[in-house]
Amino acid sequence: MGSQLTDTDPARTRTPRQLQRKRALDKESQRRKRERQRAHVQQIEKELHDARQEIHNLRLIIQDMKGQPQPGTQGIDSVRSSAHDSCPPQLESPVSVKTASTVTPCTHRSLSPQPEHKEQLIECFCEPQTHESFSECFEKTVFASVIEWNSRSILLAAVYILAYRILRYRFFPSVETHNDVPEWLRSTDIQDKIPHALYIDFVQFPRLRNAMVLGLVNIDSIREQFDADFGRHLSVNWPVSEALLVTDSSRNTILNPKFERHICTQENWTLDSVFATKYPHIAPLIV
């Protein structure tokens, strides 16, 4: 009845009807696979588009924040000068290679693992000092550029530090990098389970993040104005009496250790009453 058994081949033999059904099932399986692949590609394209839009919006926020220097920034000029002297940024890509015997390696440490091939050094952005890897050179150049191109803002420094911690965990996930992100700034269960815009992960208020992910707070139609207002009225409440930069025992100028502890405390991040008045439906989510 639809199958045959032989002494030489005990395996089940399919009838023409069964083979036809199998081919139909295989064809349907391939069709569904192609649909999943197309959906995956479309999702990637959407995420790339959202990321480009996010970069554009962040640039607008930074431009708005540039015109708002805050007190307590004494000493930043010395760090700016030090970064320039040790590693002046150039807008050229490293294209040639020098041997290790002809250059003096830069002693600046990198967060990235160092390559084993130390017999060659790239001609990096930081001439005449030369780094051993492109990632180290790029990292140093980015830090120098951040200091050079942005205003002396306590708030901007705080935002950069926490954004750096979030991104470091995303790119290099580990227990150490996870613990380095303040608990209140880590992804909530809602963020982990529901796809959402990238910028939401950098909002300092967990309840507001959840509401934005769930669609309870929709700012799409006023996004640019909202971002500008958010950056203008956000504060980290660093005491005016405290110096941002201090001198350590070796007479090196360093970031005040109290500053990172301060910005990692959720209660120190606030949005003022002007913001609450303009966005009354959001005010309960930022306390």
Automatic annotation (TrEMBL):
Q: What is this protein called?
A: BZIP domain-containing protein
**CDD domains per record:** bZIP
Sequence ranges of Polar residues compositional bias:
70-81
- What residue spans carry the Basic residues bias annotation? 30-39
Enumerate the InterPro entries for this protein.
DUF3425
Taxonomic lineage per UniProt?
Eukaryota, Fungi, Dikarya, Ascomycota, Pezizomycotina
Q: Where is this region: Disordered?
A: 1-39, 66-98
